[in-house]
Design brief:
Length: 305
C-alpha cells in the first residue's frame, strides 16, 4: 500500500519534515493543480469531524457528537448568544484504510466540542470547548500510543484549534472562527504559565478575514499551516471558499495565503472540516475529511516543482 509507506516516511520523526512543509506551502497559488490520489471510506460514524493529525500509519481525528443542538437566544444571557446544548467529544484513532483502532471521549459538562489538533512529536494536543463563542475550554495532552488524556489547563474562551511549537515551547491557539490568536507559554514541567491572564489582555486579533480556520498544524519552527473556509452569498446563492494560510506565530500574521479550490461531487469544499498536509517528492500531499457522519478521506497531491 503506497500511501501507508508515504505516511510512515513523512510523519516519523516529526522534526524531519517540519521546515520543508512550510517551504512547500509557500509555493501554493490559486493556480496550483491538485491531483486526486485516492478516496478512503471511513468505516464508522464520525459525527462532526474537527481536527486531524497523521502519526506513522495512523490517522487521528477529533469530532463532536451533537446530542442536543444549541439554540440562539433572543438577547444575550450572561454574555452568551446561545444555549450550551449537549454533546460528546471524541478522539478517534484509525488505520490508513479508515478502520477504527481506538477512541476516547473528552467532555466535561457543557465543554464537549473538540477543535483542531496537532502532534508535537510526542503528544497530541486537543482543545475541547463549549459549542458557542466567548465561552470556556479545556486543553488536553494525549499519548497517541495509549490514548491516555491529561488535562493541561482551562481557559475562558472557545479554543477552536491548538498546536505546540517545540522551538519556543509555546502552545498557539485560535478562538471561535479563528478571530483571536493566543500564545500559552509552557515551563520546563509542561505547565502553562499565563492561563490566568484575562482574555482581552492575552489575545491578538487575527488580521486575516477571508477564511475561518478549521484546523492548524505546525509547518516549521515559528510557523503554522491553518486551513478553513468562509461562506459568501449573493442573493440566494451561497459559495464556500476553502483556503490555506501559513502563519507567523511570533507576529500572529499570515506569511502566505492561497485558496484550495477543491470540492466533493456534492459541492462540499474540501477544507470544510479537518485537513492534514505533508511534503512529498516534488510537491505536497493533503488529506481532507470534509463530510460528517459517513465520512471519506480524500487524498490529493499538488506538484510544486
Amino acid at each position: 500500500m503506497r500511501h501507508i509507506a508515504i505516511a510512515i516516511t513523512l510523519c516519523t520523526p516529526f522534526s524531519v519534515h517540519a521546515d520543508e512543509l512550510g517551504d512547500r506551502v509557500k509555493s501554493l497559488t490559486r493556480g496550483t493543480e491538485w491531483q486526486a490520489v485516492e478516496t478512503v471510506p471511513v468505516q464508522f460514524s464520525t459525527h462532526h469531524p474537527q481536527g486531524m493529525a497523521i502519526i506513522g500509519d495512523h490517522i487521528f481525528v477529533s469530532s463532536v457528537e451533537i446530542v442536543t443542538p444549541t439554540e440562539n437566544y433572543d438577547a444575550p444571557r450572561d454574555g452568551m448568544d446561545r444555549s450550551a446544548g449537549e454533546g460528546v467529544g471524541h478522539l478517534f484513532k484509525m488505520d490508513m484504510e479508515g478502520n477504527l483502532v481506538d477512541s476516547i471521549t473528552l467532555a466535561d459538562g457543557d465543554i464537549y466540542h473538540p477543535g483542531g489538533i496537532d502532534f508535537d512529536g510526542e503528544n497530541l494536543w486537543v482543545p475541547v470547548a463549549e459549542y458557542r463563542p466567548n465561552s470556556a475550554s479545556i486543553v488536553y495532552r494525549v499519548d497517541p500510543e495509549t490514548m491516555e488524556a491529561e488535562e493541561v489547563f482551562r481557559y475562558p474562551d472557545h479554543i477552536g484549534g491548538i498546536l505546540r511549537d517545540p522551538a519556543s515551547d509555546t502552545l498557539h491557539a485560535v478562538s471561535w472562527g479563528s478571530r483571536r490568536f493566543y500564545g500559552f507559554t509552557l515551563d520546563e514541567a509542561g505547565t502553562v504559565t499565563n492561563a490566568d491572564i484575562p482574555r482581552d489582555e492575552l489575545m491578538v486579533p487575527n488580521p486575516s478575514h477571508y477564511v475561518d480556520y478549521q484546523d492548524c498544524q505546525l509547518a516549521a519552527p515559528g510557523q503554522a499551516l491553518c486551513t478553513g473556509i468562509a461562506k459568501y452569498g449573493v442573493n440566494d446563492t451561497e459559495f464556500a471558499l476553502g483556503g490555506a494560510e501559513l502563519i507567523d506565530l511570533k507576529g500572529n500574521r499570515p506569511i502566505h495565503q492561497a485558496p484550495v479550490p477543491l470540492w466533493t461531487e456534492d459541492g462540499l469544499v474540501m477544507t470544510h472540516n479537518p485537513v492534514w498536509m505533508a511534503p512529498v517528492e516534488g510537491g505536497l500531499r493533503a488529506w481532507f475529511m470534509p463530510e460528517d457522519d459517513e465520512s471519506r478521506i480524500f487524498v490529493y497531491e499538488a506538484r510544486l516543482d
